[in-house]
Specification:
The protein is α/β, with parallel strands linked by helices. The protein has 12 helices and 14 strands. The model has no long low-confidence stretch (mean pLDDT 96). The structure holds 3-isopropylmalic acid and magnesium ion. The site of magnesium ion has 2 residues, from helix 9.
């Protein structure tokens, strides 16, 4: 029997529409091979939504997302909208989507592909075999804590305030996702905080230690965030799964991504307790190369694979897509961001065609 899934596509800005088109073609082909039917519906988010509706996340878009089985997002933002007031910026739409769908768990894998080791800025022996999963808390911490704002201080000057806060239940639910993720990987979990200075981190560490009793098969360690940043570039292979709060996760996941040489290769998943997840590349909208057929569509294609695996429970389809990506890299196809000597330079569309051929 044909299984059918409703997927909301948020192509967004910059290179978003180009890379999304490739991912959709890839999903259609895999769907026809495995008897899966995808009903795609497009919705507006980010700068394009600001231009058309005045809001980066129109009500209708959130509703469409809530009513679907999964959301595939490309990238949002661009210079054009950077100077708008905060509530009208593309990034505010993204935060609204995360909050609106209650996506508290953000999974960001940083896996080095053997074909791309030389694209890393670190030495081969340091990055060969790196396979890290960053589990970032996504709907709490300093991104959402109250009070927040720019206020008038008693001295007459302005005072900017953001608040880093976590409740026990917020820590526990992300902690459990992280322990379970580690169980499915190499069984090692490193919790990253700043417990030597911040009270919010002290509570974080206490709760993670308490939770560990339920996961005796996971080896738990702790690092302060400054040390974690250093260890990531010193010897990244020491890490398996990392769990951390919203802000530290934002920063460390970029660093982890760069270990692999190309941020253009990395997908991510944002999940809630139930309801649709959002799947998106780690990279941004790259407005400088938009519309020039130069973008690397592989992170978008791998995000579709992650959606099939974690959002729609279709591991066979995910495996097929991931194998096709491996195959085109083995064949030597490279977009500009991962180009190396002796390889075949291709644009976004040609890379998409190569994947379709690999799937056939
Ligand atoms: C990310 C981005 C976002 C974040 C921005 C665009 C709001 O950096 O997804 O990592 O800070 O979470
Ligand atoms: Mg970030």
């Amino acid at each position: 029997m044909t299984q059918s899934f409703r997927i909301t596509l948020l192509s967004g800005d910059g290179i978003g529409p180009e890379i999304m088109a490739i991912a959709v073609d890839v999903m259609k082909q895999v769907g026809s091979q495995l008897d899966l039917r995808f009903e795609f519906q497009e919705a507006l988010m980010g700068g394009v939504a600001i231009d058309e509706t005045g809001s980066p996340l129109p009500e209708a878009t959130l509703k469409t997302c809530q009513d679907s089985d999964a959301v595939l997002l490309a990238a949002i933002g661009g210079y054009k909208w950077d100077t708008l007031p905060r509530h009208q910026r593309p990034e505010t739409g993204l935060l609204g989507l995360r909050a609106g769908l209650k996506l508290f768990a953000n999974l960001r894998p940083a896996t080095i592909l053997p074909q791309l080791i030389d694209a890393s800025s670190l030495k081969r022996e340091v990055v060969e075999g790196v396979d890290i999963m960053v589990v970032r808390e996504l709907t709490g911490g300093i991104y959402f804590g109250e009070p927040k704002g720019i206020f008038q201080a008693e001295t007459g000057e302005k005072r900017g305030v953001s608040t880093m806060a976590y409740t026990e239940s917020e820590i526990d639910r992300i902690g459990r996702v992280a322990f379970e993720t580690a169980q499915k990987r190499q069984g090692r979990l490193c919790s990253v905080d700043k417990a030597n200075v911040l009270e919010v981190s002290q509570l974080w560490r206490d709760r993670i230690i308490d939770l560990a009793a339920d996961y005796p098969d996971v080896e738990l360690s702790h690092l302060y965030v400054d040390n974690a940043a250093m260890q990531l570039v010193r010897w990244p292979k020491q890490f398996d799964t990392i769990v951390t709060g919203n802000l530290f996760g934002d920063i460390l996941s970029d660093a982890a991504a760069m270990l692999t040489g190309s941020i253009g290769m990395l997908p991510s998943a944002s999940l809630g307790a139930d309801g649709p997840g959002v799947f998106e590349p780690v990279h941004g909208s790259a407005p400088d190369i938009a519309g020039q057929d130069k973008a690397n569509p592989l992170a978008q294609v791998l995000s579709a694979a992650m959606m099939l695996r974690y959002g729609l429970d279709q591991p066979a389809a995910a495996d097929k897509i991931e194998a096709a990506v491996t195959q085109v890299l083995d064949q030597g196809y490279r977009t500009g961001d991962i180009m190396a000597e002796g390889m075949t330079a291709v644009g976004c569309k040609a890379m998409g065609e190569a994947i379709l051929k690999a799937l056939a």
